[in-house]
């Protein structure tokens, strides 16, 4: 039987939909307060199991009869204030999953992130061979995903059958205006600025599809970048604006401007208690040029990625 962690999340719910669409039964983990997404609500092929990946005592029972595990659960934040929670969930929680997979002889597919990859040399794309040079001052989310991935590599050296995926920025209509969907809300509301940065983007449907293909492939001890297209933020914002039929951002936010912004918002958050919309880490990532090589996963699975332009068209139509 298949176990999915983070079953109520954006990626986890899409993965469960694709698995159950094939007639497969799934045991999905959820926390007591988690709401089941409409995408997979009232699905008779799902056995919901209340457990916390940071509580091994509740987690052990979830592994009864399990042979395959998709580990989608994670805490995502680029606010350094959440460092303790990021480490608790993304490192300690993953360690618990790895230990139980070893004990129960389960095959694991672990969802890491491109944030756990190293930087490419100028003019080259980032590949799976890029390993992050450890930096304790790096943003907490990237550090937590790197350390979480190290737990999986530890399990692999101890004999665990596992593969790792490193998705770029995951987008999709079911995110709404949350997570990566916040970008769409920003542009829809008339945000006038863009930054001179770039990153990879991929549709959530393709991430889930690649995961199922890799789980069934005869590969182990490998990791795969899951990314469709690289986009400069200016071009991305323009296409989103066109989808919403609003004015595209025309003003470049310079690094020094972002520096003033995140400091001012951090100070304001101390007074109001509200989370700052721009942090030091988001400001830094917004001006970083990151390009990704997806040839390894294409070679391994034959997947044909949906163009990001098509995803943007679908998302903006849905969110209108």
TrEMBL record:
PANTHER family: NAD(P)-BINDING DOMAIN-CONTAINING PROTEIN-RELATED, PROTEIN YEEZ. One of its GO terms (cellular component) is cytoplasm. SUPFAM superfamilies: NAD(P)-binding Rossmann-fold domains. Gene3D superfamilies: NAD(P)-binding Rossmann-like Domain (3.40.50.720). The lineage of its organism: Bacteria, Pseudomonadati, Bacteroidota, Sphingobacteriia, Sphingobacteriales. GO terms for molecular function: aldehyde dehydrogenase (NAD+) activity. It comes from the Bacteria. Residues 2-226 form the NAD-dependent epimerase/dehydratase domain. It holds the Pfam family Epimerase. This is SDR family NAD(P)-dependent oxidoreductase.
């Amino acid at each position: 039987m298949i176990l999915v962690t983070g079953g109520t999340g954006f990626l986890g719910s899409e993965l469960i939909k694709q698995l159950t669409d094939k007639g497969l039964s799934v045991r999905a983990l959820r926390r007591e307060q988690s709401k089941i997404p409409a995408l997979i609500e009232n699905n008779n092929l799902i056995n919901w199991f209340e457990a916390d990946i940071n509580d091994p005592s509740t987690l052990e029972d979830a592994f009864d009869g399990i042979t395959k595990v998709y580990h989608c659960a994670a805490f995502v934040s680029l606010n350094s204030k959440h460092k303790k929670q990021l480490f608790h969930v993304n490192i300690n929680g993953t360690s618990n999953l790895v230990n139980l997979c070893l004990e129960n002889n389960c095959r694991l597919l672990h969802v890491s992130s491109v944030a756990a990859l190293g930087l490419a040399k100028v003019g080259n794309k980032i590949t799976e061979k890029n390993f992050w040079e450890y930096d304790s001052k790096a943003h907490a989310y990237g550090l937590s995903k790197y350390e979480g991935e190290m737990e999986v590599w530890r399990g692999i050296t101890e004999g665990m059958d596992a593969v790792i995926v490193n998705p770029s920025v995951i987008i999709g209509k079911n995110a709404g205006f949350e997570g990566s969907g916040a970008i769409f809300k920003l542009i829809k509301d008339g945000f006038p600025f863009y930054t001179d940065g770039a990153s990879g983007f991929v549709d959530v449907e393709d991430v889930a599809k690649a995961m199922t293909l890799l789980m069934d492939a005869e590969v182990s001890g490998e990791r795969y970048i899951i990314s469709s297209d690289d986009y400069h933020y200016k071009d991305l914002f323009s296409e989103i604006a066109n989808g919403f039929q609003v004015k595209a951002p025309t003003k470049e936010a310079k690094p020094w401007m972002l520096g003033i912004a995140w400091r001012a918002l951090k100070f304001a958050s101390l007074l109001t208690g509200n989370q700052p919309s721009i942090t030091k880490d988001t400001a830094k990532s917004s001006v970083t040029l990151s390009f990704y090589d997806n040839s390894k996963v294409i070679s391994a699975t034959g997947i044909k990625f949906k163009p990001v332009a098509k995803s943007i068209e679908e998302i903006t139509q849905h969110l209108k």
